[in-house]
Amino acid sequence: MDFVASFALILPELVLTCAGLVLLLVAAWGGDKAGRPIAIAAAAALFAAGFLLVPALHTGADGPATLAFGGLMKIDTFALFAKALIYLSAIAGLMIAPAFFAGPSAGAERGMRAEYPVLILFSSVGMSIMVSASDFMTLYLGLELTSLTSYVLAAILRRDTRSGEAGLKYFVLGALASGILLYGMSLLYGFTGGTAFTAVREGLTGQMGTGALFGVIFVLSGLAFKISAVPFHMWTPDVYEGAPTPVTAFFSTAPKVAAVALTARVVFEVFGGQVAAWQQIVMFMALASIIFGALGAIGQENLKRLLAYSSINNIGFILLGLAVANADGASAMLVYLFIYVAMSIGSFAALLMLRAEDGTLYETFADIRGLSVTRPAIAWALLIFMFSLAGIPPLLGFYSKFVVFQATIEAGLVAFGAIAIAASVIGAFYYIKFVKVMFFDEPAGVVTGKSGPAHWVLLGMTALIVSPLGYLLTPSLTDLADKAAASLFLVP
Fold first, then answer.
1. Is the pTM of this model over 0.85?
2. In whole angstroms, how far apart are CA 149 and each of 98, 118, 330?
């Protein structure tokens, strides 16, 4: 085992780990007064880690040279693509946090919490390990590091009842899902004799026994919880509503990317030889998530809770690409994931700009009545994001759905794709409700506060990406997604 080469492959994770440890000491000594400088340093560390990904991401990284620590990790193009999205999402989560913690919505705990950026860093390390895992032991290590930091982030407002409730619910249900996943891993180890992805794949060749099939089902069930796919979605609306809004924005992007990437790697690299054993499960979760996510959002009045159901709905479309079970489907899934991250960051940045003069945040439909009159820039940005999430052309959200449906139809899953297309129409209802309330209702006149430059920067950049100008990115994005997807299928 060449440790020098292995450490070189995980250099971004080493940068984030060292930065997290140093900033943890700074937070311990400096307290919350050092919160803002720590957040800036954490964002710089994430940017540096992302910059280290660029050369390998540009040239492509595949083959034995991508294996680290004797095959425990695989730093291929697919992992690099996912890490880039994770780091960008984490930076966005840090940029939008200071204004929230400085306002009255943070309760008695005013001011940037020093531990918040440190938790974001360690969560990013865990997610990096997740997407690079090529052994179930590595997978579980990264998953638990991500989960433990996420529980604390959800409950970071210790004196806020909703935040504490969100953290407790997330912890209890997350522990249950981790137990299910661990039990599935133990079954696979028992029936195949290995924990490495390649060893389990070889052990699952030929006729699959009942015990091994249960292992596959338990592993997929545990991973489905992490991506909030139906029927393991029950935690999502409550946690999204109760957690602080910057934390919710982070949960809807970076951990979602990591969990989807991990699920794709496990499905294709471990269960790829037994497509019949998992394809129908993924197809059911995809359709159920699309339909339930659309129907569940219709009656919601809280905007964060509505976006939680929107997240479930979008996970269904992402799983469509996974269900196709080929490189084209995986590539479409990655394209959708990139566009979804941009739409989600923009939507939550806009929500954080719905504030009063004293900084109090608003998050219901009643609060954004007539927003186009009082704050037209925010209203038009929300219109762009909602129409893009609905998949209305010519916005880039239409392209994300188009590539997924195209891969589905080309794979011969015509009925499956037709049902998904029909169900997607339902979701347009509650997205259009945003437009109706903001542009046609009498102004509520409560959103009068000013927003910081970080929010405007994120709002402008993400709105530009999902606008028709975003189609200029599609050739490069598609090429990169094709390379990343192809690396998933280079299994010896």
1. yes
2. 19, 9, 29
